[in-house]
Structures are given as structure tokens and as C-alpha cells.
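[Solved] Which block belongs to which protein?

Original post:
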Amino acid sequence: MENVRDPRQHINEEPRDDLNDTAMGFFAMFGFMFVVFTVAVVIKFIID
């Protein structure tokens, strides 16, 4: 490999599904924030 900066010489060894990765990240973050919100609401009701 003479020119290591030439993108044509680098084979994509592990193809990624960007839409699926984005969707999974969104739903994982949404789930985490939903849990945080639920815990905060429960704590607020316990305090009051």
C-alpha cells in the first residue's frame, strides 16, 4: 500500500447500517431518559 491516504485502497471491512445505528441510538437514549424521568417523578411523589 503505497499511498495510505487513498480511500480507494481501503476496503470497508465491516459495512454499517447508518439508519439502523441512528435509530437504535435514538431509542436507547429515549429509553434511558424515560427511566430517568420515571424515577424523578416517583421520587417527587415520595417527597411530597
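(Second protein starts here: sequence line, then its C-alpha cells.)
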Amino acid sequence: MPTYVYACKDCGHGLEVVQSFTDEALTICPECQGNLRKKFNSVGVVFKGSGFYRNDSRATTSSSTPATSDSKPAEKAATPAPAAAPAKESTSA
């Protein structure tokens, strides 16, 4: 259950109350019977793990250099010729 922070408009008294989402907001100060207002704080949500950031769903390749129309396709690497089989020595007996 969330904790809500209230402050009195009249006397400045502050209090924290644990309330359900369906509970009614408090309106009367327990100290001076003045008007209470609910204070809103930043939400304490932390996203951990992958998939929460814009770059998590992108491909691993980077296209930081734009392709130009006059670029040449990559040439295939030359494969070395197969080595010649060693000649067998003839042995005469």
C-alpha cells in the first residue's frame, strides 16, 4: 500500500499516511482541524534490465556512415590455390 504525504494549509503540520488506492483522501488536520492538502512527490520507479531503452531493441550493426551511390561492392578475398601434392619418390629394388 502506498504512503501519502499531507500538509496542513493553516498550521503547516505534515504527516505521512499509509492508505489504499481506494481510500478517500484526508481533508482535516489532526492538529488544528484545518484543511489538509496532499503533497505529490516524484515517483520512485526504476527500470532495470534490458529492453527499456531505445537502443536496446536496435540491431548490433551501426550505420553511422551513410552509404553513397558511387561506393563499390566489397571484393571477394582471393583464395589461395591448393598446395600441390608432394611427388612420390620411386624406389627401385
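Accepted answer:
You had them paired correctly. Confirming on the second one: The chain has a mean pLDDT of 75.
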